[in-house]
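Action item from last meeting closed. Structure (413 res):
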């Protein structure tokens, strides 16, 4: 199976996120819409019931003089008042002891289910839903009713508005979620690709010394040889083992750095003193390569806040890198101190320098500017990780053919 088949398409991931978010929002929106509809229905029904109770109270005080007038009214019922959508006409039914029913709207025929009603309830009157309530006043039972059409109309308007707003809301959510998902998915996929490349490069770098060790051991054991041949074979094995050990140490450091939730404790570190210690450590190695290593100071002290072991390793990477790429007879200088309010450490060599086009990639893991077999391209990655973690700033001046100046500065304490 090709490597491409394992790639995660950020657009595909963003689309899945957007669809999931849209579905969740749609479900929540529907639930909220139902709750709102129930609340509005309950509120409007409560208003109708309040009007019914008020009407019954008024009728209990003033109905007797007007009972005889109800049968003379022929106005149609069920039409809301133009001044107020919820002020529907009040329909009154008076049920006498002998069963005769009089109403202010004769065409509103009260069904049997409403003859003895007392508490507010919903019934159908002439194919129209009514909210009715009743009360016995004198010798008659009086039932009053109001059409529920305003409630249905309001619910319909509310539903229409919700349905109109829903597509726009979902489109907004989808576009927003897709945009956010794409921004999140791209760095995740980039990190995954870097991890895959890191694993592949590490495997390649480890395979090379192992192949050399296997080949040298095979040659040495294939037949009897002179002692010099065995010495040469074991020398190659030692060199490759040393290279592999160095690579494993760098890989282990990066793994611990990437996976550590808390860094080592930050302390007050003197960059001048650290540079002097690094000079003592690397002078024998520089002399072994035929190089001149020197140090100078810009001030007596330059204090920064950082883990001491990190600054020691940073200096080690910069000096070791300079030693590897500076030809025999060259010079390497270390400069440390305060400069314009910032603590500075600079390592400059007289090597071949770095081409301008390579500058953006010098901190990439396993990236090597030259084809030199020394190193695995992890040193500057470690240095950059330390600089970023300690809030430092790089000052790199590539000068092809005349050397390289790599400086780091921090806010002094």
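Sequence:
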């Amino acid at each position: 199976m090709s490597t491409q088949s394992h790639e995660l398409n950020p657009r595909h991931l963003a689309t899945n996120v957007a669809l999931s978010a849209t579905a969740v929002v749609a479900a929540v929106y529907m639930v909220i819409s139902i709750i709102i509809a129930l609340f509005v229905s309950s509120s409007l029904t409560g208003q109708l019931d309040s009007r019914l109770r008020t009407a019954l109270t008024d009728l209990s005080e003033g109905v007797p003089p007007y009972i005889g007038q109800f049968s003379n009214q022929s106005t149609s019922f069920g039409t809301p008042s133009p001044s107020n959508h919820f002020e529907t006409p009040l329909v009154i039914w008076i049920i006498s002891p002998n069963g005769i029913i009089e109403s202010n709207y004769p065409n509103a025929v009260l069904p049997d289910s409403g003859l003895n009603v007392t508490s507010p309830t919903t019934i159908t009157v002439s194919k129209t839903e009514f909210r009715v309530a009743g009360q016995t006043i004198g010798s008659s039972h009086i039932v009053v009713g109001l059409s529920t059409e305003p409630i249905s109309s309001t619910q319909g308007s509310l539903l229409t508005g919700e349905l109109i707003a829903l597509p726009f809301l979902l489109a907004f959510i989808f576009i927003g979620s897709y945009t956010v998902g794409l921004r999140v998915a791209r760095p995740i996929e980039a990190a995954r690709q870097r991890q895959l490349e890191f694993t592949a490069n590490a495997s390649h770098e480890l395979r090379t010394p192992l192949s050399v060790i296997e080949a040298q051991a095979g040659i040495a054991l294939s037949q009897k040889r002179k002692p010099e041949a065995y010495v040469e074979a074991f020398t190659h094995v030692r060199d490759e083992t040393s290279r592999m050990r160095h690579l494993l140490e760098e890989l282990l450091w990066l793994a611990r750095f990437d996976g550590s939730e808390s860094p080592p404790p930050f302390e007050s570190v003197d960059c001048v003193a650290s540079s002097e210690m690094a000079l003592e450590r690397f002078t024998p190695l520089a002399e072994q390569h035929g190089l001149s290593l020197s140090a100078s100071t810009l001030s007596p002290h330059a204090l920064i806040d950082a883990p001491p072991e990190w600054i020691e390793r940073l200096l080690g990477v910069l000096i070791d890198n300079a030693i590897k790429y500076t030809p025999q007879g060259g010079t390497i200088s270390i400069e440390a101190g305060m400069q314009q309010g910032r603590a500075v450490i600079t390592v400059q060599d007289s090597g071949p320098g770095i081409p301008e086009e390579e500058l953006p990639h010098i901190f990439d893991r396993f990236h090597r500017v030259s084809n030199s077999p020394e190193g695995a391209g992890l040193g500057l990655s470690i240095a950059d990780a330390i600089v970023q973690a300690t809030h430092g700033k790089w000052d790199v001046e590539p000068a092809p053919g005349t050397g390289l100046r790599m400086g780091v500065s921090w806010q002094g304490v």
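Note appended to the action item: Residues 267-411 form a domain with the Heat Shock Protein 90 fold (CATH 3.30.565.10).
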